[in-house]
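Operator note (shift B, R.M.): manual run for Rhodanese domain-containing protein requested after the automated queue skipped it. Running by hand, logging everything below so the morning shift can see what happened. Input copied straight from the record, untouched. If output looks odd, do not overwrite the archive copy; leave it for review.
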Amino acid sequence: MALLIAAMGVLLGVAAAPASAGNAPVGNVPVGPVHARPVPKVPLLIDGVRLAPKEISRFDGRPLYLFVDQRTPDLLVGYTNESEAKAEVARRDAVATPMSAGQSIVIYSGDEGHDDSQAIQSGWSVNNLTAVLRGCGLFGCAGNWNDVISSALMNGNATFYADPNFGGGWLSMWGGSNWRFNMSTYGFDNITSSINVWW
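Run finished. Output pasted below as returned.
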């Protein structure tokens, strides 16, 4: 049977990749390859150390916990330790001007607020964006929202998570009024799998 499967793979042009450091199995669970992290367009401050945008590659294969404040949109602040990041977010949240209930964000599948869009009200979250369809019309839907968010319009606060169920690295944004930005600015383009919106 294994020989038949291997022969079919050769005929179809598909071959099993050899195990390497990036995709070696752990026990019986295969681990996917470590992908290069997208390079943001703004400087970084990671664990208190200022870095050039391209230096984010130092953290490939590890989650980063990032945040941006509309008052300082040209700096991407982050931590390698989630507990430290949550403490900093709580500290900043305590001194921030609270948003009122009824705020929202709008996510877009294209840059600069173009293409498919979806509004999410404050107080709502989506734990798996594969369950939310986008671009639906007379002839069906274009797909789902998993890994396609390219820009957002903030009228509230949100955290974008790299994995479903609010897991993996994340990017927290403190919005305000009509703050539109491209996710590529912060190295988070097309990687959001769950989202939480709060006021």
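Quick read of the result: The domain at 38-198 is CATH 2.60.20.10 (Gamma-B Crystallin; domain 1). The chain has one domain: 38-198.
Leaving this for review. - R.M.
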